[in-house]
Amino acid sequence: MAELHNRRWILHRRPEGLVTLADIELREEPLGTLKPGEVLIRNHYLSIDPAIRDWMSDRPSYLPSIPLGEVVRSTSLGEVIESHHPAFKAGDLAVGVNGWEDYSIASGDQLMPVQPLAGEAEQYFLSIYGAVGLTAYFGLLEKGRPQPGETVLVSAAAGAVGSLVGQIARLKGCRAVGIAGSEEKCRWIVDELGFDAAINYRTSANLQDAIRESCPDGVDVYFDNVGGEVLDAALMTLNKNARIVFCGAISGYNSQQPVPGPYNFWQILARTVTLEGFLVSDYFARFPEAIAQVRQWLAEGKIVFREQVVDGLEHCLDTFNLLFEGANNGKLIVRINSLPQASGGSGLRRDQLNHATAASALAATQEETR
Amino acid sequence: MAELHNRRWILHRRPEGLVTLADIELREEPLGTLKPGEVLIRNHYLSIDPAIRDWMSDRPSYLPSIPLGEVVRSTSLGEVIESHHPAFKAGDLAVGVNGWEDYSIASGDQLMPVQPLAGEAEQYFLSIYGAVGLTAYFGLLEKGRPQPGETVLVSAAAGAVGSLVGQIARLKGCRAVGIAGSEEKCRWIVDELGFDAAINYRTSANLQDAIRESCPDGVDVYFDNVGGEVLDAALMTLNKNARIVFCGAISGYNSQQPVPGPYNFWQILARTVTLEGFLVSDYFARFPEAIAQVRQWLAEGKIVFREQVVDGLEHCLDTFNLLFEGANNGKLIVRINSLPQASGGSGLRRDQLNHATAASALAATQEETR
Q1: Are A214 and A206 contacting, i.e. CB atoms less than 8 angstroms apart?
Q2: Chain B closest-CA separation from residue A253 CA (Å)
Q3: Mean pLDDT for the stretch of residues B267-277
Q4: For B85-89, B115-119, B165-169, B360-364, which range has the lowest pLDDT when averaged over its residues?
Q5: Cys-Cys link to A80, which of A92, A149, A275, B34 (CB 3.0-4.6 A)?
Q6: Which of B258, B264, B275 sits opposite A268 (nearest CB)?
């Protein structure tokens, strides 16, 4: 396996604010050779996630910072080309925490084999069956612990995680209210996903009041992806003994100043709130159970999921920055080394995969769970 | 019961910063008459607590703000003088959320009858058998959920609540580390109370480093009474899945600016921490169980508790401000209408009640639980 060259996005400076070409650049490097236990993967899909911004900084977090001079870390899905690990052979598909690069060399112990069923696109394992779907699933159910009849509020509700959180909340018999940044997004989560209400935080004169109006019985679970002012507003609307699932804080990821916690922090005491930090990786052993459940909901048309797939490794950075402009529509994935798959009946389109399911089935579910 | 006059501390302005005589003043008012269901109490002891500062402000909290023109709210213990409630008769002792005043008129439904055992001072029911002791007990055990061998860090560790938290942590087989504001306090919690280590936050060059040194295995439970910079430092030392008991935030109570949450708020996600707001009043139904346990520990010499009793209603304000200077030594109580009690063998002194117990018994316990 000689002479393979590898294009890789390399971090060569810690970004301040939005990431630019001054911080990361696409370089071509010779591919190394495999050590025992390692696997060579030709990546097909790269995951574009807000968390990557956190890993680029040098503040302490749940994973080490990406070292300068190293590839930008991301989850990827690809095909095994060569394996020095007993669990993998050429042709297998595997998911792992690799990087924005054509090829990855990884320890087989750190890879998860995946096997799409007929009609399932490979990249589902980077989205609805991957960190995104399982973050919504475990974050809401294990940390939010929603009870039927309760109100679940979610920020970045048209985002990959948030859109699923609201739908799972509905399936569990809760009122689901989403906060999003455009009228189109608000319409989408209510009309297509079945949220009970949506709030456009960009046009609300007073976000607290808007939440109170949409959550007349108060908020029992707040699933937070954004932090900042939205978290501050949500804190003022929580019921006693409410739960906050602290899943992300995208509003602060590009800040060049230290970002304080919420100004309404005291409300956590005053309302005896439980706030829990959540990392999906802690639930690794239970991924199969969650994938089976999400797969069933998808098959039954009970959840709708949206991916936005962009072609070309060279577009990783542009695509990444869409996240911070709120300009993406669903889970962002970059496709490389792979033609679009003709997956049966999933309405796959080249630039945007809208896995919308029968609206009637969803509507029926809504009636049942209202 | 006519012609009784009542001296009362009245809130007539919302304080900015430290409370002064421009905010509250001692007035003499005629005592009202009892309605059905009400009880007239001659107060013996008034509780002086940081939380009262919160109630004086108009920010939303777990109790309504004290209305302007009303008595400063506090827990008090007194003797029933007249009762229009079937559960109380003249001569009974009762605790309730009343005010800094000679006499209180309260609904009997809102009062708790108390009965000191032989040798127990009345004011125990405002301290170790009251909100202070039960806050330490339920806060640590129910919210902190300490496991044997874990490390429990507590701020304001020489304070009324903190000093008990560390001792209960030791009784549960944990390493107990306290943060306090003077060398004397640090010596006291280690030498007299049996904490494993103490940190003087005023003289530590780097509080994070000091915590790491005293907590070589990291912190599993952080019991927070102060918020602010101490909370920020503690956040950087937490183990994965640590618990924070959010019991108070005295560092911010006198602030005239909005007080942000901790700058290291992100660590709650990165370390998958659970932060829980705690109010002892939520455990009202379980007070008897806790009092029985604390009473037993006290009888067995397993815990040491310190009260600072000041005589005279006119000293409520000075005494209250000691809290914010860190100048008190133990639970602050103002005594009125009552002579010091000759409680058997508890080493009662006029200005400071030091319920120290046999050091040898404590040392034995330490050995057992180390």
Answers
A1: no
A2: 10
A3: 97
A4: B360-364
A5: A92
A6: B275
How would residue A251 be classed by pLDDT, with cut points 50, 70 and 90? confident
- Where does the pLDDT of residue B360 fall: very low under 50, low under 70, confident under 90, or very high at 90 and above? very low
Position A273 pLDDT exceeds 90: yes
SS (H, E, C) A183-216: HHHHHHHHHHCCCCEEEECCCCCCHHHHHHHHCC
In A, minimum Cα distance to B275 occurs at A275
- Decide if A17 contacts A285 (C-beta within 8 A): no
Of the candidate ranges A140-144, A256-260, B73-77, the one whose mean pLDDT is the lowest: A256-260
Interface of A with B (CB under 8 A): 59-62, 227, 236, 246-249, 252, 258-279, 282
Q: Write down the pLDDT at residue A200.
A: 98
Residue A256 has pLDDT above 90, yes or no: no
Residue B2: predicted pLDDT: 52
Q: Which one has a higher pLDDT value, A363 or B296?
A: B296
Taking one residue from A and the other from B, the number of pairs with CB-CB distance under 8 angstroms is 108
Q: What are the domain boundaries of chain B?
A: 5-120+306-353, 131-280
Are A272 and B276 a contacting pair at CB < 8 A?
yes
pLDDT in tens, B296-331: 999 999 999 999 999 999 999 999 999 998 888 789
Q: Which of A59, A263, A272 sits opposite B282 (nearest CB)?
A: A272
Q: Which fold has domain B5-120+306-353?
A: Quinone Oxidoreductase; Chain A, domain 1 (3.90.180)
Torsion of CA A279, A281, A283, A284, to 10 degrees: 170
Residue A26, pLDDT > 60, answer yes
Q: What is the pLDDT of residues A121-140, one digit of tens each?
A: 999 999 999 999 999 999 99
ipTM field: 0.87
- List residues of B whose CB lies inside 8 A of any A CB: 59-62, 227, 236, 246-249, 252, 258-279, 282
Q: Which residues of B touch A260 (CB under 8 A)?
A: 260-263, 265
Cβ–Cβ < 8 Å for A218, A234 = no
Which residue matches tokens 């901790």?
B262
Looking at domain B131-280, its CATH class is alpha beta
Give the per-residue SS3 of chain B: CCCCEEEEEEECCCCCCCCCCCCEEEEEEECCCCCCCEEEEEEEEEEECCHHHHHHCCCCCCCCCCCCCCECEEEEEEEEEEECCCCCCCCCEEEEEEECECEEEEEHHHCEEECCCCCCCHHHHHCCCCHHHHHHHHHHHHHHCCCCCCEEEECCCCCHHHHHHHHHHHHCCCEEEEEECCHHHHHHHHHHCCCCEEEECCCCCCHHHHHHHHCCCCEEEEEECCCHHHHHHHHCCEEEEEEEEECCCHHHCCCCCCCCECCCCHHHHHCCCEEEECCHHHHHHHHHHHHHHHHHHHHCCCCCEEEEEEECHHHHHHHHHHHHHCCCCCEEEEECCCCCCCCCCCCCCCCEEEECCCHHHHHHHHHHHC
Predicted TM-score (pTM) of the model is 0.87
Tell me which of B266, B267, B272, B278 to substitute to probe the interface with A (most A C-beta atoms closer than 10 Å): B266
Correct CATH for A5-125+306-355 of 1.10.10.10, 3.40.50.300, 3.90.180.10, 1.10.150.120 = 3.90.180.10
